[in-house]
Design a protein that fits this description.
The protein is an alpha/beta fold and about 220 residues long. The protein has one domain (about 1-215): Rossmann fold. Helix content is about 50%, strand content about 10%. It has helices at about 1-10, 30-40, 50-60, 70-85, 95-110, 125-130, 140-145, 150-170, 185-190, 210-215, and strands spanning about 20-25, 45-50, 65, 85-90, 115, 175. A 6-stranded parallel beta sheet has the order 3-4-2-1-5-6, with helices on both faces. Helix 4 links the parallel strand 3 (about 65) and strand 4. It is globular and about 45 Å long. The protein starts with a helix and ends with a helix. This is HUTU hydratase. InterPro entries: Urocanase-like (IPR023637), Urocanase_central_sf (IPR038364), Urocanase_Rossmann-like (IPR035085), Urocanase_sf (IPR036190). GO terms for molecular function: urocanate hydratase activity. Pfam families: Urocanase.
Length: about 220
């Protein structure tokens, strides 16, 4: 319902075939995103750093494909988008790398390859494994978390700033992004990322929350 209503509200579209939804997280609650994309008929690319979560969703049949190669992900995205094929593709990697690659595609080809975007990392718990920084691989990040939590926190905040910078560039070109109620925008703001709504007070963000704007 969230994906369908986002399409209705922001894309003015009842039919999401050929539309691309990019997000992250295939864990306990976020794992439903892959299934939702296919039910809605769109192309869903979902990033996840933990391979175990990807394999679990694939085994369940909720996730159609898995890839750790961004070139392959972009090629499959283009193919499914062109042919209006419903697809859920799990990218085994950090969502910041995926967002930055989509910005690179926009810069080099002029093509905006994503229509809808969100995030379901556990940003209510960003410094204890809920969000993994793009600067490190999954295993290295877990090790740093246990040995130097202060440095881990610094890297998470740097990563959040990069994350938002990439989303902002794509949103400025017409992608519609929303907060999934996971404190992503709040933690990004605390990290110093540009998420404030222009001309509004500090508690208002430039992107809507799914609770009030999509499901409300």
């Amino acid at each position: 319902l969230t994906v369908l209503n986002a399409g209705r509200r922001y894309l003015k579209a009842e039919d999401l075939s050929g539309k691309v939804f990019v997000t992250s997280g295939l864990g306990g609650m976020s794992g439903a995103q892959a299934k939702a994309a296919v039910i809605a008929g769109c192309v869903g690319i979902i990033a996840e750093v933990d391979e175990a979560a990807l394999l679990k969703r694939h085994k369940q049949g909720w996730l159609m494909e898995i890839s750790n190669n961004l070139d392959h992900c972009i090629a499959r995205l283009r193919e499914a988008r062109k042919n209006k094929i419903a697809l859920s593709l799990g990218y085994h990697g950090n969502v910041v790398d995926l967002w930055e690659r989509l910005v690179d595609e926009l810069d080099t080809t002029g093509e905006l390859l994503v229509d809808l975007g969100s995030d379901q990392t556990s940003c209510h718990n960003p410094f204890n494994g809920g969000y993994y920084p793009v600067q490190l691989g999954f295993k290295e990040a877990k090790q740093l978390l246990s040995t130097n939590p202060g440095q881990f926190r610094t890297l998470v905040q740097e990563s959040l700033k990069r994350h938002v910078a990439a989303v902002n560039k794509l949103a400025d070109k017409g992608m519609f992004f929303w907060d999934y109620g996971n404190a992503f925008l709040l933690e990004a703001q605390r990290a110093g990322a540009d998420v404030a709504k222009k001309g509004a007070n500090k508690t208002e963000f430039r992107y809507p929350s799914y609770v009030q704007h999509i499901m409300g």
